[in-house]
Amino acid sequence: MKKQALYYLIILFSICTVFGQSAEQEKIDLIKARVIIDSLDKKFSKHYFEGDSIALYKMYAKGAYFGTSTGKDILSSWGGQIRYSIENDMRHFLFTTTSLTTDNEFLFELGKYEMKDSKGNLKGDGKYLLVWKQEEGQWKIYRDMGL
Protein backbone atom coordinates (compact mmCIF):
# COMPACT_ATOMS: atom_id res chain seq x y z
CA MET A 1 0.00 0.00 0.00
CA LYS A 2 2.81 2.41 0.87
CA LYS A 3 4.48 1.57 -2.44
CA GLN A 4 1.30 2.43 -4.36
CA ALA A 5 0.87 5.73 -2.45
CA LEU A 6 4.51 6.63 -3.20
CA TYR A 7 3.92 5.79 -6.88
CA TYR A 8 0.88 8.13 -7.03
CA LEU A 9 2.82 10.84 -5.21
CA ILE A 10 5.64 10.62 -7.78
CA ILE A 11 3.13 10.84 -10.65
CA LEU A 12 1.41 13.83 -9.04
CA PHE A 13 4.76 15.56 -8.47
CA SER A 14 5.75 14.89 -12.10
CA ILE A 15 2.49 16.35 -13.41
CA CYS A 16 2.84 19.44 -11.22
CA THR A 17 6.43 19.91 -12.39
CA VAL A 18 5.44 19.66 -16.06
CA PHE A 19 2.55 22.11 -15.66
CA GLY A 20 4.69 24.44 -13.56
CA GLN A 21 7.35 24.54 -16.27
CA SER A 22 4.84 25.19 -19.05
CA ALA A 23 3.31 28.02 -17.03
CA GLU A 24 6.77 29.53 -16.61
CA GLN A 25 7.42 29.24 -20.34
CA GLU A 26 4.22 31.18 -21.05
CA LYS A 27 5.43 34.19 -19.08
CA ILE A 28 6.10 37.19 -21.25
CA ASP A 29 9.75 38.23 -21.43
CA LEU A 30 9.55 42.02 -21.09
CA ILE A 31 13.00 42.55 -22.62
CA LYS A 32 11.99 40.73 -25.80
CA ALA A 33 8.53 42.32 -25.69
CA ARG A 34 10.11 45.79 -25.51
CA VAL A 35 12.04 45.14 -28.73
CA ILE A 36 8.86 43.96 -30.45
CA ILE A 37 6.78 46.91 -29.20
CA ASP A 38 9.46 49.41 -30.23
CA SER A 39 9.48 47.90 -33.73
CA LEU A 40 5.68 48.02 -33.88
CA ASP A 41 5.70 51.67 -32.80
CA LYS A 42 8.14 52.43 -35.64
CA LYS A 43 5.96 50.49 -38.07
CA PHE A 44 2.94 52.50 -36.92
CA SER A 45 4.86 55.77 -37.49
CA LYS A 46 5.89 54.60 -40.96
CA HIS A 47 2.30 53.74 -41.94
CA TYR A 48 1.13 57.10 -40.60
CA PHE A 49 3.81 59.01 -42.55
CA GLU A 50 2.90 57.08 -45.71
CA GLY A 51 -0.79 57.91 -45.20
CA ASP A 52 -1.79 54.24 -44.97
CA SER A 53 -4.84 54.19 -42.70
CA ILE A 54 -5.66 50.61 -43.75
CA ALA A 55 -2.25 49.37 -42.52
CA LEU A 56 -2.81 51.26 -39.25
CA TYR A 57 -6.25 49.68 -38.89
CA LYS A 58 -4.75 46.21 -39.40
CA MET A 59 -2.49 46.80 -36.39
CA TYR A 60 -5.58 46.70 -34.14
CA ALA A 61 -6.97 43.51 -32.60
CA LYS A 62 -10.54 42.30 -33.00
CA GLY A 63 -12.73 44.14 -30.51
CA ALA A 64 -10.18 46.96 -30.18
CA TYR A 65 -10.92 50.49 -29.08
CA PHE A 66 -9.20 53.68 -30.27
CA GLY A 67 -10.49 56.18 -27.75
CA THR A 68 -14.22 55.48 -28.06
CA SER A 69 -14.02 54.27 -31.68
CA THR A 70 -14.35 50.60 -32.56
CA GLY A 71 -14.36 48.53 -35.74
CA LYS A 72 -14.35 50.45 -39.01
CA ASP A 73 -14.63 53.74 -37.06
CA ILE A 74 -10.96 53.24 -36.14
CA LEU A 75 -10.13 53.21 -39.86
CA SER A 76 -12.18 56.36 -40.46
CA SER A 77 -10.63 58.13 -37.52
CA TRP A 78 -7.07 57.43 -38.68
CA GLY A 79 -7.99 58.42 -42.22
CA GLY A 80 -9.19 61.80 -40.96
CA GLN A 81 -6.15 62.30 -38.79
CA ILE A 82 -3.80 61.47 -41.67
CA ARG A 83 -5.57 63.96 -43.96
CA TYR A 84 -5.28 66.63 -41.27
CA SER A 85 -1.58 65.87 -40.74
CA ILE A 86 -0.87 66.17 -44.47
CA GLU A 87 -2.71 69.51 -44.70
CA ASN A 88 -0.84 70.86 -41.66
CA ASP A 89 2.63 69.38 -42.33
CA MET A 90 2.73 67.19 -39.22
CA ARG A 91 3.20 63.70 -40.63
CA HIS A 92 6.20 62.71 -38.48
CA PHE A 93 4.59 60.82 -35.61
CA LEU A 94 7.22 59.58 -33.13
CA PHE A 95 6.63 57.36 -30.10
CA THR A 96 8.74 56.88 -26.98
CA THR A 97 7.81 54.10 -24.58
CA THR A 98 8.31 55.19 -20.98
CA SER A 99 6.96 52.05 -19.31
CA LEU A 100 6.08 48.52 -20.41
CA THR A 101 4.43 46.06 -18.03
CA THR A 102 2.48 42.84 -18.35
CA ASP A 103 0.00 40.62 -16.59
CA ASN A 104 1.21 37.73 -18.83
CA GLU A 105 -1.80 38.14 -21.09
CA PHE A 106 -1.58 41.78 -22.16
CA LEU A 107 1.24 44.28 -22.55
CA PHE A 108 0.64 47.76 -21.14
CA GLU A 109 2.63 50.48 -22.86
CA LEU A 110 2.76 53.95 -21.40
CA GLY A 111 4.54 56.52 -23.52
CA LYS A 112 4.76 59.93 -25.05
CA TYR A 113 4.45 61.02 -28.65
CA GLU A 114 5.62 63.92 -30.73
CA MET A 115 4.32 65.18 -34.04
CA LYS A 116 6.82 67.10 -36.15
CA ASP A 117 6.74 68.93 -39.44
CA SER A 118 8.98 68.25 -42.45
CA LYS A 119 11.66 70.55 -40.96
CA GLY A 120 11.70 68.74 -37.61
CA ASN A 121 9.78 71.43 -35.72
CA LEU A 122 7.54 70.20 -32.94
CA LYS A 123 3.86 70.59 -33.90
CA GLY A 124 2.23 68.61 -31.08
CA ASP A 125 2.93 66.19 -28.27
CA GLY A 126 1.18 64.17 -25.61
CA LYS A 127 1.03 60.94 -23.67
CA TYR A 128 -0.67 57.65 -24.46
CA LEU A 129 -1.57 54.28 -23.03
CA LEU A 130 -1.72 51.22 -25.28
CA VAL A 131 -2.87 47.76 -24.30
CA TRP A 132 -1.42 45.12 -26.61
CA LYS A 133 -2.98 41.69 -27.08
CA GLN A 134 -1.64 38.67 -28.92
CA GLU A 135 -3.82 37.60 -31.80
CA GLU A 136 -2.77 34.71 -34.01
CA GLY A 137 0.80 35.00 -32.70
CA GLN A 138 1.08 38.75 -33.40
CA TRP A 139 0.88 41.63 -30.95
CA LYS A 140 -2.04 43.89 -31.84
CA ILE A 141 -3.37 47.06 -30.27
CA TYR A 142 -6.37 46.24 -28.10
CA ARG A 143 -6.89 49.58 -26.33
CA ASP A 144 -5.48 52.93 -27.51
CA MET A 145 -5.99 55.95 -25.29
CA GLY A 146 -4.55 59.42 -25.28
CA LEU A 147 -3.77 60.78 -21.82
Describe this structure in words.
The chain has a single domain, classed as Nuclear Transport Factor 2, Chain: A (Roll). It has 4 helices and 6 strands, in the order αααββαββββ. The protein is globular. 15% of the residues are buried. The longest helix has 24 residues, at 2-25. Residues 4-25 have low confidence and may be disordered. It is 45% helix and 37% strand. Strands 2-1-6-5-4-3 form a 6-stranded mixed sheet, with helices on one face. β3 (92-102) and β4 (106-116) form a beta hairpin. It is an alpha+beta fold.
- Shape call: globular
- What percentage of the residues does DSSP assign to strands (E)? 35-45%
Name of the level-1 CATH class: Alpha Beta
* Spatial strand sequence of the major β-sheet: 2-1-6-5-4-3
Are there runs of 5+ residues with pLDDT below 50, and where? 4-25
Number of domains: 1
Biggest pleated-sheet summary: 6 strands, mixed
Helix and strand pattern? HHHEEHEEEE
Oligomer: single chain
Per CATH, which architecture?
A: Roll
Terminal CA distance reads 65 Å
The CATH topology: Nuclear Transport Factor 2, Chain: A
| Protein structure class | alpha+beta
Helix content: 40-55%
**What's the total number of strands?**
6
Mean of the pLDDT scores? 87
